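Single Protein Entry

Contents — chain, fold
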Amino acid sequence: MAAVGIAAHEAGHAMQHAQGYLPLKLRSAAVPAATVGPNLGWILLVIGLLLASPKLAIAGVVVFAGAVFFQVITLPVEFDASNRAKAVLGELNIVDHDGALVVRDVLNAAGWTYVAVALQSVLTLLYYISLVSGMRNDRD
């Protein structure tokens, strides 16, 4: 049942793509930021802090924020794909009641992992912002 749910979830992404689902388009556009942002962001931040360069540190925060945007926009994409999967599996009677419960549990657990990653990213961004804010206050 878990495999059926995951396969249906992936089919949900295909449906999103076919229907031009806006959050999926936004997430696709944010892939470069997600690829570069986490590493380049903290590197620029650390160099900015070490050199006492607020502009460089802020640039690091901004670059990292692009990766955070990717994590946050991923949430509606993933939950929508799971909702589509559950609906299709039910409408087509592919799973019985007990199977639907297993699918729901598996897809919900997977969805919460995305929530955890997004929350961690937002909290890291807030931490970075606090470092830069402290740096700017120290210079005043």
User: Anything to note?
Assistant: The radius of gyration is 20 Å.
